[in-house]
Amino acid sequence: MAAKTVQKASAPRRGRKRKETPFRRVLMGIRVEEHVGKLLRALAILQGVPVGEFVEQLLLAAIEGDNALADAKGKIPAPVKKKIEALKEAYDINFSRYQLLSPESQRTLTEEK
Fold first, then answer.
1. Given this model, what pLDDT does residue 4 score?
2. Cα–Cα dist 89/101, whole Å
3. Partner of 57 for a Cys bridge, out of 30, 49, 50, 68, CB 3.0 to 4.6 A?
């Protein structure tokens, strides 16, 4: 007996309408330090984009040798710097990327698993 194919009636999508783009996005699970994740979300909101698109901007700018938060001259504007510093203080980020990625902190992360 042949298998039947049943077509479901598609329900209208809820939420934000996605813009048409030639790029295909995938869902990725990433793990980041808690405070860094909060800062990332806040900066994405300031830029007016979803977190995933903000991460794309950061990565692509870094690969190209640029800063995603910089202006056309390559400098981060003073108001943006002030906002970032305020957010870092609000989210209790008092460490550098070097401290976060040091061998000692990596060992601590693996011991917590």
1. 59
2. 20
3. 68
Q: Is 18 within the bounds of a domain?
A: no
pLDDT at 3 exceeding the cut of 90:
no
Residue position matching structure tokens 């909060």? 38
**107 lies in some domain:** yes
Residues 6+ apart with CB under 8 A from 11: none
pLDDT digits (tens, 9 = 90+) for 67-80: 888 888 889 999 99
In the chain, the number of structural domains is 1
For residues 93 and 35, the answer to whether their CB atoms sit within 8 Å is: yes
What DSSP line would sit under 30-46, residue for residue? ----HHHHHHHHHHHHH
One-character DSSP codes across 11-26: PPPPSPPPPP-SPPP-
